[in-house]
Specification:
This protein is an alpha+beta fold. The protein is 62% helix and 16% strand.
């Protein structure tokens, strides 16, 4: 019996067709990722074709996308807020004499 949670799809990434098996709920993320890669690669290829190798253009695309990821990851990091809230909660509990 086939796993109903998996889906076999083809993605068009730049000038390649890639076949992948994905979780059904992740299909749109994969399709969006393929489009992002294609769009970014095309932008770099247009700007640097003939001056940079395809390998370097690919690496520039990867760095660009990794930078977006790192910025988003840092933006969504809640650890500093959690630490401040924990410290403030402890200070309030200590002041009220309700420490656990």
């Amino acid at each position: 019996m086939a796993d109903q949670s998996k889906l076999h799809i083809r993605l068009h990434v730049y000038d390649e067709e890639i076949e992948v098996t994905v979780n059904r709920e992740d299909e749109e993320y994969y399709r969006s990722a393929a489009k992002l890669i294609t769009d970014r690669y095309n932008a770099y290829a247009q700007a640097y074709k003939g001056r940079k190798s395809e390998h370097v253009i690919s690496l520039m695309t990867l760095v660009d996308i990794a930078l977006l990821y790192q910025k988003e990851r840092a933006h969504n990091d809640t650890a500093p807020y959690d630490n401040v809230l924990a410290r403030l909660t402890k200070e309030m509990e200590d002041a009220l004499g309700t420490s656990r």
